[in-house]
Amino acid sequence: MRKFKVIKALAAALSAVLICAAMTGCGRSDEELTAEATTEFESLMQTFQTGDVEQIKQADKSGDIAENLNEIANANLTAAIFGALKNMTYTVNSTTVTDDSDVRFNVTLNTINSSLVMQEYISSITTLVAPAEYQAQLATMTKEDYENLMSEQMINIINSGTIPTVENTVDVTLSLDNGSWEIKDSDEFMGLIYENVVDVLDEIVL
To answer: How far apart (Å, rounded) are the C-alpha atoms in residues 148 and 74?
Structure first.
C-alpha cells in the first residue's frame, strides 16, 4: 500500500512538471527557450513578408490585426498596405531570455516610410481637389464615392514603388502562454510594420 502511494505521488509530481513545461518555459534552458522563440519569430516575420492579408490574420494569435482591418472598408487598400510588406527586411540583432517564459528580440526593421507615404498622400489629395471640375462633382458625391476616391490615391502611392524605406530598431518580446508563443507589448513593433499607416488613414480617409 505504501509503495502504491509513493508511485502515485511520483506520478502526480511528474504530471505537474509536464504541465508546467507545456504551459510555460519551466524546466527549459535559456538556449531551448531562445531556439523555440526564434523559430516562432522567424515564422511570423516570413508570414508578414508574404503580404497576404489572410495568412497574416491567421498568424496573429492576439486578433489585433483582424480588429484593425475591420476599420478599413476598402479591400484593395488593405491589400496595398499589407502588400508593401513583401519588401520588408529585418535583422535580429540579439535575443535575451527575460524570465522563464519570455524572450526579447532586438530587431532592426526596414519598412516603407509611413511619414513619407502620408506626405505624398496629402500632396496627391491637394492636387486632386484643386480643379473646379472636382469641386463641381463634390456636391453629388456620396460618402462611399469619396472614400473610394481617397483610398485610390493611397493605393496608387503605395503601389508606385517610389516611397523609400526607413530603418528602425525596436525590442519585441515573445511570451510563452499555455504552450503558445505570442507577441507581448507589441505597439511599437506593430506600428513600424503597418499600424502607423492605418492610424493616419483612420484620421484622413476611413
So the answer is: 7
Is residue 177 helix, strand or coil?
strand
Looking at 51-139, list the stretches that DSSP marks H as alpha helix, in order from N- to C-terminal side.
53-59, 64-69, 75-83, 114-129, 132-138
Cβ–Cβ < 8 Å for 185, 69: no
Q: What is the pLDDT of residues 46-69, one digit of tens each?
A: 999 999 988 988 887 767 777 766
Determine the 3-state secondary structure of 199 from DSSP. helix
- Residue 101 reports pLDDT greater than 60: yes
Query: CB–CB of 186/48 below 8 Å?
Result: no
Question: How many residues in the chain?
Answer: 206
SS (H, E, C) 20-37: HHHHCCCCCCHHHHHHHH
Q: What is the pLDDT of residue 203?
A: 55
Which residues sit opposite 97 in a β-bridge? 103
Joined together, the cell numbers standing for residue 157 give 502611392
In the sheet with 89-97, reading across from the earlier edge strand, the strands are 89-97, 102-112, 165-177, 180-184
111 Ramachandran zone, left/alpha/beta (phi>0; psi -120 to 50):
beta
- Report how far residue 43's alpha carbon sits from residue 183's, in angstroms, rounded to the nearest whole number: 13
Compute the distance between CA of residue 61 and CA of residue 65 in angstroms, rounded to an integer.
9
